[in-house]
Specification:
alpha+beta; ten-stranded mixed beta sheet; Heat Shock Protein 90; Four Helix Bundle (Hemerythrin (Met), subunit A); six-stranded mixed beta sheet; 3 domains
Amino acid sequence: MTQQAAAETHEFQAEVARLLNMMVRSVYSETEIFLRELISNASDACDRLRYEAQTNPAAMEGDTALRISVTVDKAARTLTIADNGIGMNHDDLIANLGTIARSGTAAFMEKLSGDSKKDVSLIGQFGVGFYSAFMVADQVEVTSRKVGDEQAWKWSSDGEGSYTIAPAEQAERGTSIALHVRPDEDEYLDAHRLRHIITTYSDHIAFPIHLSEVKDGETTEEESVNKGSALWTRPKAEVTDEQYTAFYRHAGHAFDEPALTLHYRAEGTIDYTALLFVPTERPMDLFDPARKPRVKLYVKRVFITDDTDDLIPGWLRFLRGVVDSEDLPLNVSREMLQNNPVVARMRKAVTGRVVSALEAKAKDDPEGFVKIWENFGAVIKEGLYEDGERRAALLKIARFRSTHGDSWTSLEDYLGRVKEGQEAIYYVTAADIEAARRSPHLEGFAARGVEVLLLTDPVDDFWLSMVHEHEGKPFRSVTRGGADLSKLGEAQGEDKPDDSRFTTLVVALKEALGEAVKDVRTTDRLTGSAVCLVADDGDMDLNLQRLLKMHNQLGTESPRILEINPDHPLVAAMAARADQPGALDALKDPALLLLDQARILEGELPSDPAAFARRMADLMAKGLN
């Protein structure tokens, strides 16, 4: 395209249009974060150019001093943030400024509410910081020339649903973002106010940030505002909590405060520095299927990549921060990362330090650790499945809900409360905590005072397939047929039923239900419910079977065992009818209703809802006549 080419007009991606509309029309208490976000983006552009120069020295030819400039022109009501970093071409501008090219976009948009404090924190948290410029500007112009290109491009928009791109004149590489400040945002045309914002949020930026003013057509001498040293390179004793928080917000594009900070330098076999944070709030992409960590890798303070799944395991993907290595070559590539033994050793060491820090937090600040677990426990438990080396340590810090009460419990606490004769750690898995507490399988355990863990995360069914015991006691599901309650004593007020009275009923139920069930038998696990379904000892657990079926990962369902409560009036009445003539025909519909009732108790639909409704209506009509 030539310099004389006409400007192109594009519509914003739908998510961006909604986001811009929310920003423009809402009132925010923390609009100043726009400057932090734009400077952070400029810093990333400089970092990427410095990395590019490791393999292409010509990229920085003629201008090796990377920097960021902030220029305010009160008369023209403009604020300009410029960098001499890697720059953007025509396609980059569309990709980066016309779409939200990050995972979790749809979920992010669902979180936008119009509540000023909540929404402004979301803006910082989920990495869409460029658009925060429209909180203070009614027109934004981005002029950029990518390194190696001769043509510069200008992107402009008023934030009302579309943007234009046209060729531009810019002699130097890099990007310049000009904000036409709204009439009611004069504070961002005040150099003193801008200096305060920069030192508050961006003091740690590794590139010099220069601030200047345009007065009477003349630009004042640029003033260096930030200290310009990478925070992680400083000794811990010299870094304040406020500086850690500011860096966390920069590195994680977040607005909350870190719940846990881990800053250390490793020396010896491998040398590296790590500054890692556990967020207070869940990042939006926490459950993204890609499971990508967001820790940035530097080599000798040169940014290399934020695609660090070779360095940080997926089950620690909530971490934010940086790892800076002294042992990797500066020109390291993604392919080299994947096969580099130094990276493998660093991964092992970093993972160990994070787990140790979580252990210390659990011991020294139990309440603070519980808050971390509530946000990230479901992700940390993925490590129980994946990381055999850390499994024992993770089991020690794992927290669970249980029938003991409403608070969280550790396995150590659970084992301290086991009943005499209890040989296993009992658990039930369900879709949510209320469904778990309603499970009929808990009745016999509750009657005997036996505590049961209530597991409600999808990952629970999977890690339990890898973790068979803890401290010598096996994990055992209460929904399996082998949960033998006889060793745990009799339930309070329980009389041992005479199972021989139900032999005929069991035969009749097997005949009526056929292959829909694997077996029918009486049970002592129920006290209030008439019936329940259990998995045979060698079969898949009920909740896991449901999960796999939901995701079309299960071919054929294994039929389950129907257990009946001999103390329940309905079962007793059916047993009495089973001894009378014509019992098979009379009990067929009640048997199918009993099976559907068991399915409903498990949170499932009846196998044939229409037939279930018909049978229920017929039974109710007979009862009312």
